[in-house]
Task: structure prediction
Amino acid sequence: MKNQNKGAYNIWQNTAFMLKTAWKTRKSVPVLGVLLAAATAGQSVAELLVGPVLLMEVEEKVPLTSLILSILGFTLILFILAGLGAWLKDGGFIGRIAVRMNLLRQIDSKVAGTSYPNTLDTKFINSQSKALKSTSANREATEAIWTTWTDILTNIFGFIVYLTLLSGLHPLLTVVVIATTAAGYCVNKRFNSWGYRHREEESACHERLAYIHRVSTRRSYAKDIRVFGLRDWLEDVWDKTMGLYRAFVARREAAYLWGNAVDLVLTFARNGIAYAYLITLTLTQGLAASEFLLYFNAVSGFTQWVTGILEKFSQLHLQSLDISALREFLEWPEPFKFDDGEPLEADPEKSYELCLDDVSYRYPGSEKDTLSHISLTIHPGEKVAIVGLNGAGKTTLVRLICGFLDPTQGQVLLNGRDIRKYDRRDYYRMFCAVFQDFSLLEASVAQNVAQRVDGINTDKVWKCIDQAGLTQVVRDLPLGIDTPVGRQVFENGVELSGGQTQRLMLARALYKDAPILALDEPTAALDPIAENDIYMKYSKMTHGRTSLFISHRLASTRFCHRILFLEHGKIAEEGSHEALMDAGGAYARLFEIQSRYYQEGGGTHESGK
Ligand SMILES: Nc1ncnc2c1ncn2[C@@H]1O[C@H](COP(=O)(O)OP(=O)(O)OP(=O)(O)O)[C@@H](O)[C@H]1O
Result:
């Protein structure tokens, strides 16, 4: 485990990373930063010189016209440098945002493409929120680092010019100024790292607050919040978390306060020594007023440059830690093979056999296996149902078959080869799947069906919509297949009912035309007759194709060639519906109970089949 006070990369490595990113996104960003630093330092030097130079001219009694020309010259230089500074600052702004957006996009891409188990891993999720924080605003590390580096360069330019000016004074003075400032920097650095060392605590508060915010504002919670009076609960959790966060911030500020106090004492001592020396020099060697003014300003300015350099490096250190956290996220290890895996071509005309060889699976942190010692072969073209009560392990089994999870023991084989060998993205191309949670896009009907923006085959979209039984519904929409779905992005978007959405998902699965179909209870929200109708439709559409149907409503899947009845993570019974009914075991008992429920309690749908 790496030290939390240190990032995986140092300041220089992170600066190089940002330069590389900027070079690919906006080359102008670092260039404008350097020019801005030169303009700002130049302005400061001009401001330093204006008083002493004019005073010297007065002392030397130069003609009035020369004096006026000097004043005008300085005014012009200051005007140009200030204008140039403002122009460079504005010019770099958009570029800096573009670089940050590039990194944000990389985070999105990592999240969307990462190995599925990472998405269930709390450490990955925490790392993700740190990475998101570092790219979430203009003031955050990935954008603020440019300002910090510009400030450092400004201070270094100023430091060099002022050092040259002060070279006429005693070298010990320069040593004292640098030494006290450096000591302040070291103390500050120690205190400033407090925030980073306690980032997990801060991140936990942010996560919880963000969750409450999501629940409070998400439409899907709106009804429950009202019916169950969840508002009080939400407000309670929010208040308690805010209390924890406030306490955290108070501790952090206390740590920073100590750092600032030590720094203040050192600054006081440093300036005191410097000014005492200058005054002694004036009294003993009789410096001219213009020289006194120049050195006086140079000494105070010089300390400011040195402090500036060290303070900005301290700030850069914090920003570097944030950038390190971002890079660690982007480089988060992938347990699955992607580009380094063997390619696999999904051919709907080819036969595929899926085999689970003594497969067990245990969720990370769990004390027992969710699935244990499952051995199963799904033959090409076979329709297999996986049924069982809630929590039996059906979804977990589908996750293993679809390659979202790898077994903790045993192997999943496709045509006899361990699926871990393949590029996982290629393996996913083998499946068209519909899961319990729909992933409806805020996009047009056609884009939802084809899952792409360009190159949509509209004839195929209409065909799939027709097969899914949605033709009339889509024809009645204002823009047909171009009608946007959902109202979060589009004002004129349409809201589809549960059944219509289900059919749209069916059309999407048909459009994908993959060799294996997996349905994980996508019909849970539908009534049994609608569920049966949908399952039969899927069955018909995917005729001859290997298919998996998961349901806890046993009647929905009795058309399948084989039914696996899952209990406590094991295949308790297996066979056709008729064979299982004849056996009179747990499946038959559950089927009777469910049939009775639908006949007596829920309605007459099951009896009607
Ligand atoms: N991400 C997870 N981490 C830990 N345990 C999990 C996770 N997902 C599921 N489980 C556990 O695994 C067991 C099986 O869950 P699974 O979702 O596979 O069952 P299921 O048969 O599909 O249930 P349902 O019919 O309710 O969807 C449950 O006890 C569940 O709590």
